[in-house]
Amino acid sequence: MEAVVEGLRAVSAVDIDFIPYKFKTQDSLNSIAMNDACDGTKKKRMYVRLLLSIDRRETTEAAIETVRMFMSF
User: Fold this and answer.
1) End-to-end alpha-carbon separation of the chain, Å?
2) pLDDT value at position 59?
3) Can you give the pLDDT at residue 44?
4) Which pLDDT belongs to residue 22?
5) Which of 14, 28, 53, 59 could form a disulfide with 44 if both were Cys (CB 3.0 to 4.6 A apart)?
6) Per-residue pLDDT tens for 24-35?
């Protein structure tokens, strides 16, 4: 998960915006504060929502750690 987030943050061709986990899918993306200007030039914006997968073969502690990492973003 950390590698995916780091990779997305490293993208410079578009602005990456992580959708908050509390954001309801029926709400409009327009309700999220947007700023399309970047150094006077407009960039396309890509909204990302991460879907975590908990491996049930792992321990409960590993699952909780995955959730904690997600909540820190």
Assistant:
1) 11
2) 95
3) 84
4) 66
5) 14
6) 655 555 544 445
How distant, in Å, are the alpha carbons of 30, 46, 50, 56, 60 from that of 5? Answer: 23, 13, 9, 23, 23
d(CA 47, CA 35): 13
The number of C-alpha atoms within 13 Å of 34 and in the hemisphere containing its C-beta is 15
pTM above 0.90, yes or no: no
Rounded CA separation 69/63 (Å): 10
Please report, for residues 25, 45, 55, 62, 72, the alpha-carbon distance to residue 59 in angstroms, rounded to integers and kept in the order given. Answer: 31, 37, 8, 5, 21
